[in-house]
Design brief:
single chain, about 450 residues, mainly alpha, about 75% helix, globular
Length: about 450
């Protein structure tokens, strides 16, 4: 079943490539294939034993497949409209559906392999494959900015993956030197530090995050949604694979490192969101913040609220994919990523305005967001570390204020004279984001009593 899971996306990638220049056929095939992969994923999550698929892998695999289906369903209307609006200008041509969807399928296959692989070496191969297959997606608009963002993504992530490879090799050496079943602590410490820097780069942890704002802002909405909502999860899962080998005497050291880099990521994201003028980059820095929170919660996994990192992982993926899809809709309607240039969304696109405002509230952990449960659990555990608790609380407050100032400025008021939207958006473009936000709210209702008792 795991072979079928990994092979299905690559098979559809080949079928899509074989379709030639038929746009609609490739887009419809993508929807059929995404539904098939989701069905296989559900069967795998229900039938595979824990030894083959642990809780983290099960969640990452399901989120990857489900969100891919939601994004592809959204793309059925979004891609034709993007081709119609943005393709009018020779200076901003859009990529054809066949190469775009071919890479998108291969991207799904490599992320699926990350989720089901258990060997650290195979996990590294799969993470490297996600970089190679996702990079062309950033160039959907074929602009100089998107090309620069793609090369920046390739360069920085390749350096990070090289560090992760070195860490994986040192882990193997530490296992080779193991005595009486105990892994060598000195070599393991070096392996984990390199893996944290390497996979932390792919996760978007500060200060290794510099590729993320450019890639997320320049990529099309359907690619940005997957880069943020699923790819970052895969990088986090790869890091946990290395952490699972930690000798008992090194667990406190490893947890302290993860707490430091997690808190630092939250603080850096807060500083950049406060002064942000691009709403897609604002969402990108929100991803830096949330992956930092996930890492902090994972470092506290031995606490009574140890499973809260899975809640934050799921909550961030659902809400962030919804927000990037809405951001893509706003970009199509207004033709700009500038926060200051978009005004009066409630009067021009009320459905998108509601989704944008509700999504912004939920990504900043306001109820009924599943992220509220995770952040509440985190603050409860950080009370024993007052300095770290205070710094994290201030950063989260700054993130909320900075994001809501930008979002409220976009949805309220009236459009400036001479700056009206370029088009009226189809109502169908609100379905997928609304569904994802609704699921996050449902998740909050189910889990809040578990972690807040």
């Amino acid at each position: 079943m795991t072979t079928l899971l990994v092979a299905t996306p690559f098979l559809f990638s080949l079928l899509t490539f074989a379709l030639g220049r038929t746009h609609r056929a490739a887009e419809r095939l993508a929807l059929v294939g995404a539904a098939a992969h989701l069905l296989i994923t559900l069967l795998a999550c229900l039938r595979l034993p824990h030894e083959q698929l642990d809780s983290s892998s099960r969640l990452v695999l399901f989120l990857t497949s489900f969100l891919y289906f939601a994004v592809v369903a959204h793309a059925q209307q979004w891609i034709p409209l993007a081709r119609q609006i943005e393709g009018r200008s020779d200076a901003r041509r859009v990529m054809a559906s066949r190469p775009f969807l071919t890479c998108l399928w291969a991207f799904l296959g490599s992320m699926t392999l990350v989720a089901v692989a258990r060997d650290p070496g195979l996990v590294w191969v799969a993470v490297e494959a996600t970089t190679l297959f996702s990079a062309p997606l950033i160039c959907f608009h074929r602009s100089a900015e998107s090309l620069e963002a793609m090369w920046k993504y390739l360069l920085i992530c390749s350096v990070g993956i090289a560090l992760a490879l070195f860490g994986t090799m040192l882990l193997g050496h530490a296992q080779h030197l193991a005595r009486n079943g105990a892994i060598n602590p000195v070599w393991y410490k070096a392996a984990f530090i390199l893996a944290l820097a390497g996979y932390g780069t792919k996760m978007g942890l500060a200060p290794f995050h510099t590729w993320l704002p450019d890639a997320h802002s320049e990529a099309p909405a359907v690619a940005s949604a997957l880069l943020s909502g699923t790819l970052l999860n895969c990088a986090f899962l790869a890091l946990t694979r290395i952490a699972a080998f930690a000798p008992a005497e090194l667990v406190p050291f490893i947890n302290d490192m993860m707490l430091f880099f997690g808190a630092f990521s939250v603080a850096v994201a807060a500083l950049f969101i406060i002064r942000q003028t691009d709403y897609k980059r604002m969402l990108a820095y929100s991803s830096v913040e949330n992956m930092g929170l996930v890492l902090m919660l994972f470092a506290l996994r031995e606490s009574p609220c140890g499973g809260a990192y899975l809640v934050n992982l799921a909550g961030h993926s659902l809400v962030k994919v919804a927000l990037f899809l809405v951001a893509g809709n706003i970009l199509l309607a207004w033709g700009t990523r500038s926060i200051g240039a978009v005004k009066g969304l409630f009067s021009t696109h009320p459905a998108q305005a509601v989704l944008w405002l509700v999504g912004a509230l939920m990504i900043t952990a306001m109820p009924p967001s599943a992220l509220f449960v995770g952040e509440y659990a985190l603050i409860r555990q950080l009370v024993a570390r007052p300095v770290l608790c205070l710094l994290t609380g201030i950063s989260l407050l700054a993130l909320f204020c900075g994001m809501m100032q930008s979002v409220l400025g976009m949805v309220m008021g009236e459009p400036a004279e001479g700056k009206l939207p370029l088009c009226v958006l189809p109502k169908g473009l609100a379905i997928a984001p609304a569904l994802l936000l609704g699921i996050s709210a449902l998740l909050f209702g189910v889990l809040c009593f578990t972690f807040m008792e």
